[in-house]
Amino acid sequence: MTSGAVSTTDPDLRTPRLRRPGPRPVQRHPVDLVRVALGLAVLGLGLLVAQRGRLPVLERDVFQLVNDLPASVFPVVWLVMQLGNVVAVPAVAAVAALTRRFRMARDILVAGVLAYVASDLVKSVVQRERPVGLVVEVNSPEGPVAGLGFVSGHSAVAAALAAAAVPYLSRRGRRWAWTLAWTMALARIYVGAHLPLDVIGGLAVGWAIGSLVHWAFGVPRREVAAARVGQLLDRFGLPVRDLRAAAVRARSSHPFEAIDERGRRLYVKFLEPDRSERDWLYRLWRLLAVRDVKDADAVAPLGQQAEHEAVAAMIARERGVYAPRVLLARGSERGALVVQEYVVGTALDDLPPGELTPALLARVWQQVALLRAARVAHHDLVAASVLVDGDGQPWVVDFGNAQNGADEDALAGDVAELMASLVLRVDPELVVGSAVDVLGPDAVAAALPSLTPMSLSSATRAGIRDDRTRLGLLRRAVRRRLDLPDPDRPEFGPPGIAARLAVAAGAGLVLVGVPLLAGATAFAGSVERGGWRWLGAALALAVLARAARAAGALLTVERRLALGRTYGATMVADGASLLHGDEGWRRSAARFLERAGVLPEDARRAVDRFVAGAIVAAVLVGVATLVLALVEGLLSGWRTPEALVPAVALGLGAWALVLTGQWLAGRADTGPQVRRQVGRVLRSGLTAPRRARWLPGAQLGWTAMGVALE
What span, in angstroms and rounded, lies between the C-alpha atoms of 278 and 291? Predict the structure, then answer.
């Protein structure tokens, strides 16, 4: 499309959709649920440590360090401490209501009340004393404080107020809110009312509750006045007229359109300084869940982000992609602008289904092929990011998340995103066929791992939720076109109720019988003394061990796999091994890799590599444990346990039951063949040249960590 002068009466100008009077639309960010989970995790760890009548040395030292501060700071401390009082909840909510921030007032009121109630509930469960009951000497400017300590109600209320208020505040206001919350928490230690673990637990409770309130109610999207954008344009040397909000859907920016002095119609994009992609917790969650943060430059200064977007768009345009010309890219931390020529066209997702013809789809994929040749990953290549002009030519727009010099995984993610977005309105066979014809089978096969909801953009996920069958149909269409085996094909027949009962009996015998060997009374007494804390610690170690093993499994294939999905796959594979033995574990693990786009033969080799790495890791951990035991002299006084014979009998009985269940389930005896395959992998890995060894230190390290934690 070539630029030209356009008047404000041009019939091609689209009139922006006027917003109806009423409250602003709200947004719900999934990362708020991650905050809730983290807050509960911190609280759970605190429950393991905060035992009644006991005080860790480190916690005592930190308490004394803060509690021994001079008395001159008490007036300031007292003033800040009132922010955690339950009376502060309606007071702060009233201030928000007086400034006409009614949603903010509602969130503050709900979060503050819930935090106060939750903190009292936790106190009644934990029953931990205040510092005066645990510490020898306590400085109490307000006098001794009695009652229960864990968690701090003041800290919970202050954190809930801060968490509830921050989406409505500026960046400076958010910093002040959390500074006051943490200062209030330290103040409770200073006055001798709480121990450090009490206030940390309270902050975690308040943070989790405030985040949960935002997930339940949502937060309104920030608005940017056109006058502010006009001032920035004048400052950067591009005066415009008729500046108004554009009728364009945008999640992390504010779109406007205008006319410049030469009569050109412009698309003005104001970059949001507080978009969710800049949240470090969101980025960490994306990295762990799908190993892709979408926008790698979101934490860069806004001016640099604008320049990066402009560079990506210009590179794509220079390499033949139909992308709008960039006229300005500039900004600061308070706001940045990207100005381009306006493309008059219709987004692919707004076209009638009859206009999405094979010829048009072929032209769309040709633009994608040019992007791939330029090594530009769009990172948000949904159907709405492709406009079709009056001549039927597709244009690629919105390079805000783009990456130059992208790797194969990032380029494959674009293919997956566009296919998933198109399949919501187009037959899957047509989408896959047009992509394969233009890009080739290898490019489409590489997109298979990203055809999962978590790997896709929020806009595509929203469409998939409306019709959950479309993504599955797309994956099956890809496999049919590429002649890949169906990962859901049956490998074993139904095991039958008898097999399930036998395996369940064997597992139950171990879970119930081993504690009973020590005596039911002794076992119950140990649990009562430990307050179930040792069970929680064991659970935490088991979770960490699984995560380490999953991290090691990621390094056995070249495809980018998500840590969360791999974690779940290892648990499913362990469950399959109960009914079908080692072969069940291997086939379950291989099927997971096949669903991620790994070819069957490559999946089997990856499983062999993981098993071989686990063997080496187990040997290393065993040898290290034995050496440490010898050095510490722990083996010199070893004696045969009194319950050795019953324990062996119990183990043999459970083993017999599980083997019977596997025999009833029709277990295939492939043990010798599997052992030969693993042996070959071990020999090749240990004898290969150093650079060609598939067993890198990272895989071995993660696997060894998992074995050690287990």
Answer: 16
Model confidence pTM above 0.85: no
CB environment 658-682: b (16+ within 10 A), e (fewer)? bebbbebbebeeeeeebeebbeebb
> What's 221's DSSP letter?
P
Structural domain harbouring 151: 26-220
Q: What is the DSSP letter of 129?
A: B
Residue among 575, 581, 579, 574 nearest 669 (CA): 581
Q: Where do runs of H (alpha helix) occur along 68-151?
A: 74-81, 88-98, 102-126
Asked whether residue 144 falls in the same domain as residue 56, the answer is yes
For residue 691, the model assigns a pLDDT of 41
Domain assignment present for residue 6? The answer is no
Kindly write down the DSSP assignment for every residue of 305-340, as one continuous string.
Answer: HHHHHHHHHHHHHHTT---PPEEEEEEETTEEEEEE
Chunked mean pLDDT (size 10), the chain, 710 residues: 36 37 64 88 82 73 82 78 80 88 90 91 83 74 75 89 88 86 86 86 92 87 83 88 82 84 89 69 67 58 82 92 92 83 89 89 94 92 90 91 86 92 91 93 86 80 83 89 77 76 83 71 62 69 82 74 75 79 80 75 81 81 80 67 72 82 66 50 48 55 70
The confidence score (pLDDT) of residue 286 equals 67
The sheet that has 346-347: what strands, in order across it? 346-347, 386-388, 394-396
Q: What angle do CA 589, 676, 547 make, to 5 degrees?
A: 30
pLDDT confidence of residue 676: 52
How far apart are the C-alpha atoms of 45 and 39, rounded to whole Å? 10
Residue type, 697: G
Write down the residue that tokens 């002095």 correspond to.
261
Q: Of 373, 368, 375, whose CA–CA distance to 418 is shortest? A: 368
Give the model's pLDDT for residue 5: 34
The pLDDT value recorded for residue 17 is: 38
Tokens of 657: 């039951």
Rounded to whole angstroms, the Cα distance separating 593 from 613 reads 17
CA torsion through residues 162, 166, 167, 168, sign: positive
Looking at the fold, whether 66 and 198 belong to one and the same domain comes out as: yes
In contact, 655 and 506? CB cutoff 8 Å = yes
- Does residue 288 sit in the same domain as residue 359? no
Q: Name 114's Cβ contacts closer than 8 Å, sequence gap at least 6.
A: 160, 209, 213
The amino acid occupying position 669 is D
Residue with tokens 């990362």: 31
pLDDT of residue 646: 77
∠ Cα 385 391 394 (to 5°): 20
- Does residue 252 sit in the same domain as residue 207? no
